[in-house]
C-alpha cells in the first residue's frame, strides 16, 4: 500500500540512466503504482505525491522535468496547482490526467498553461507518447527571447508584454501561442497545426479553441481587434502572423 505524500518508490533498476525526473501528483494508490512503473521502465526518475501540498513542495525541491497532474486532489486542487506551477516555471511541461472529460475543463486547464490533457481511463502508451512529445518540445532551443511588432514589445524569457508602453497581461498559454506565431511569421498556420504544436493535442473536441485564443490575443495586442493587422485570418486555411 502506497503512503500518501512525497516519496521515491522502490522498483527494479531503471533501463537506462537519465536525469529526466517526472513528478506524479495523484492520490489514487493504484494509479500511483501504474504511473510509477510505467515511467521507471522508460528510464525516468519518478517522484510520486498523493496530495496537492506535498506535490507543490516536491515541485520546489526536485525541479522536475515534467509533471503528471491529477485534477481532484486533497489540500490543493489540480487547477490551482497547475496555475501555481506554470506561474513559477512556465517551461516545465504539465500533463493533466483526470476522469473529468468536459470540454470546458480542458479549455480552462490549457488556458492556465497545462501542456496536455489525458482523460481516464487511458492507456499508459498514450500517456507516455504525450509525455515524450512534451519533453521534446521543451528541449527545443528557443529561437526568440524578445520581440517587437507594431507598438508591442514581448519578452518571452520574463513573460512580460507591453503595448504602447503599457503592460499587458497574457496567460502562460497565450505566451506559448504568441511565440509559435512569432517563430512562424508570415506562414499560414492551420487550426489543426496550432492545436497539435501549441496545445499538444493530436485531436481536440473543437477548433473553436484556437479561434477563442486568437480573439484574446487580438483584443490585447492589436490597435483595433476588429480589424487586425498582425493576427490575420486566412479564410479556409487558418491564421497568419504579420509583424
Automatic annotation (TrEMBL):
Organism domain of life: Bacteria
GO MF, any single term: phosphorelay response regulator activity
All residue ranges annotated as the OmpR/PhoB-type domain in the record: 144-243
One GO cellular component, as annotated: cytosol
The UniProt record lists the keyword Aminoacyl-tRNA synthetase: no
Pfam families registered for this protein in UniProt: Response_reg, Trans_reg_C
CDD domains assigned to the protein according to its UniProt record, in alphabetical order: REC_OmpR, trans_reg_C
4-aspartylphosphate modifications at: 70
Domain (Response regulatory) ranges: 21-135
SMART domains assigned: REC (SM00448), Trans_reg_C (SM00862)
Keyword entries, A-Z: DNA-binding, Phosphoprotein, Two-component regulatory system
GO biological process, alphabetically ordered: regulation of DNA-templated transcription
DNA-binding feature ranges: 144-243
Protein name from the UniProt record: Response regulator transcription factor
Source species of the chain: Terriglobus albidus
UniProt lineage: Bacteria, Pseudomonadati, Acidobacteriota, Terriglobia, Terriglobales
Amino acid at each position: 500500500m502506497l503512503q500518501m505524500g512525497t516519496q521515491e518508490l522502490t522498483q527494479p533498476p531503471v533501463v537506462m540512466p537519465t536525469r529526466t525526473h517526472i513528478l506524479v501528483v495523484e492520490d489514487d494508490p493504484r494509479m500511483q503504482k501504474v504511473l510509477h512503473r510505467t515511467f521507471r521502465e522508460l528510464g525516468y526518475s519518478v517522484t510520486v505525491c498523493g496530495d496537492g501540498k506535498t506535490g507543490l513542495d516536491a515541485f520546489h525541491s526536485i525541479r522536475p522535468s515534467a509533471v503528471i497532474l491529477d485534477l481532484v486532489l486533497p489540500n490543493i486542487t489540480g487547477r490551482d496547482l497547475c496555475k501555481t506551477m506554470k506561474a513559477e516555471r512556465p517551461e516545465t511541461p504539465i500533463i493533466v490526467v483526470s476522469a473529468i472529460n468536459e470540454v470546458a475543463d480542458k479549455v480552462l486547464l490549457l488556458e492556465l498553461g497545462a501542456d496536455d490533457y489525458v482523460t481516464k481511463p487511458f492507456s499508459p502508451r498514450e500517456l507516455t507518447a504525450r509525455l515524450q512529445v512534451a519533453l521534446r518540445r521543451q528541449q527545443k532551443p528557443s529561437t526568440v527571447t524578445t520581440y517587437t511588432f507594431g507598438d508591442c514589445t514581448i519578452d518571452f524569457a520574463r513573460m512580460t508584454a507591453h503595448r504602447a508602453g503599457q503592460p499587458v497581461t497574457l496567460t502562460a498559454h497565450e505566451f506559448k501561442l504568441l511565440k509559435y506565431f512569432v517563430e512562424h511569421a508570415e506562414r499560414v498556420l492551420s487550426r489543426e497545426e496550432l492545436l497539435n504544436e501549441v496545445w499538444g493535442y493530436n485531436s481536440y473536441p473543437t477548433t473553436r479553441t484556437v479561434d477563442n485564443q486568437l480573439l484574446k490575443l487580438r483584443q490585447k495586442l492589436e490597435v483595433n481587434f476588429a480589424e487586425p493587422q498582425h493576427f490575420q485570418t486566412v479564410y479556409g486555411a487558418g491564421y497568419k502572423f504579420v509583424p
